[in-house]
Amino acid sequence: MTGIPKPMTLAQPAEDEFLAYDREHLWHPYTSMTDPTPVRLVTGAHGARLALADGREVVDGMSSWWAAVHGYRHPALDRAVTDQLGQMAHVMFGGLTHVPAVELGRRLVEITPDPLDKVFLADSGSVAVEVALKMVLQHQRGTGRPERTRMLTVLGGYHGDTFDCMSVTDPVAGMHAIWRGLLPEQVFAPRPPSYDATPPDLQAWAGAFRALAAAHAHELAGIVVEPLLQGAGGMRPYLEACLHVFREVADEHDLVLVFDEIATGFGRTGHLFVSEVVTPDILCIGKALTGGYLTLAAVLTTDEVARGISASESGVLMHGPTYMGNPLACAVASASIDLLREGDWKADVARINRALTAGLEPLRATPGVADVRTLGAVGVVQLDHAVDVVAATEAALAAGAWLRPFRDLVYAMPPYVISDDELDRLVAGIRGAVRAG
Fold first, then answer.
1. Of 30, 303, 344, 384, which one is the catalytic site residue?
2. Element (H or E) spanning 229, and its range?
3. 228 within 8 A of 237, measured Cβ to Cβ
4. How is 260-307 classified by DSSP, letter by letter?
5. C-beta separation of 437 from 429 below 8 A
6. Catalytic one among 158, 293, 411, 416?
7. One of 60, 164, 260, 281 is an active-site residue; which one?
């Protein structure tokens, strides 16, 4: 790329000082404060690469936790932020509106399936799921079924780190199992069958899911799932036919169907949204919504659900974040959507899938590897043991790639702009991480 400012360089004493202060005072995600794992100091980023303080440039296999689909320092996204900054950075959304929010709402209604035409702008993916769950409960109250207060979901899922989100995350094998007993008790069905499962597996699962829904129909308000790919719960794709089962069961028992596409939206699976295959009543999107520039999420729903919420005792949706509809975030989100619509993201995702499939499949024969799977621009190697995160990360960096393994998984979800040469480097990094982890 041209016109990219040179990343900041730091002398070794300065780098050491920043890292020492970070270690002493800053809490990183899912990390011990008293015994933290090492962090690397990033001084710049461009395209699909991160510049580290030690002078190395590494391919970002994580897209900044799956958000930076256009890579870093994209001129159109930079321009959207700076242009909006010249007008206003923020204004409250209560009683006011602004062009960036209206234009983003217009785009979201256009690119998502009918009849999802009501848009709530939230702060983050976790907040979006919280709002969606609140929508489900208020809709049931507004339609005369206040006794329906529980959600039906599946094991293996992950929906965020706030309390109601944790309640619909796998209570046994999920990362929030320690909170079991303190969270609302939801209804969990077996994991959906893997994408390579046989028809009998699908039939058995569907039968069990239908039976569980029927047994709890009197108390269920909705169904919430990650469609087609379970993300942080295990990076596990499942059969598309399961989506139709979710829809049929929701319709049969008057349940509100929620698809959490925080991770899967904006092309990651090969669909712009999995909701194009089966349309939910509520759709949660985030992460790649702003191309990784600013935190923003959205919840889309139908006129029917909105009418139910309005008929509840409050008459309004009881949620309103301080930074709801932030103009900077809305402006860059619209620019990110325009890039997807004008470009050939589908070809890029297919290209990434071919490279990850070809590069990772041979790892099946590697000792310690339990499974290899790919879907869209997602590549996963599952080990038969917990990953040594420090050793695996070092090995990936030595090969020129940034990865963030977790549990028993070494995986990649790279930016769509990644080049073929960078894909080769990323695959080498995954191989190194698998062998070291």
1. 30
2. strand 229-230
3. yes
4. E-TTTTTTTTSSS-GGGTS--SEEEE-GGGGTTSS--EEEEE-HHHHH
5. no
6. 158
7. 260
Q: Is 346 annotated as a binding residue?
A: no
Whether the Cβ atoms of residue 383 and residue 433 lie closer than 8 Å to each other: no
Q: Among this protein's residues, is 260 annotated catalytic?
A: yes
**Residue 6 annotated to the active site:** no
Answer yes or no: 158 catalytic: yes
Kindly tell me if the per-residue pLDDT of 367 is higher than 90. yes
Whether 413 contacts 377, CB under 8 Å: yes
Any idea what the Cα angle at residue 40 is, between residues 360 and 418, rounded to 5°?
40
376 labeled part of a ligand binding site = no
- How high is the pLDDT of residue 180? 83
Backbone angles phi, psi at 389, to 5 degrees: -60, -40
Residue 325 marked ligand-binding: no
How many CB atoms are closer than 10 A to CB 146? 14
List pLDDT tens digits, range 383-430.
999 999 999 999 999 999 999 999 999 999 999 999 999 999 999 999
184 marked among binding-site residues: no
**Amino acid sitting at position 384:** D
Is there a binding annotation on residue 107? Answer: no
In terms of Cβ atoms closer than 10 Å to its own Cβ (0-12, 13-18, 19+), residue 119 is buried
pTM across the whole model = 0.96
Q: What are the angstrom distances between the C-alpha of 267 and each of 144, 174, 262, 276, 345?
A: 38, 26, 11, 11, 7
To the query of whether residue 195 is one of the catalytic residues in this protein, the response is no
Tell which residue, 299, 296, 300, has the closest CA to residue 328: 296
Q: Is there a binding annotation on residue 260?
A: yes
Q: How many C-beta atoms lie closer than 10 Å to residue 34's C-beta?
A: 4
- Give the integer Cα–Cα distance in Å for 388 and 405: 9
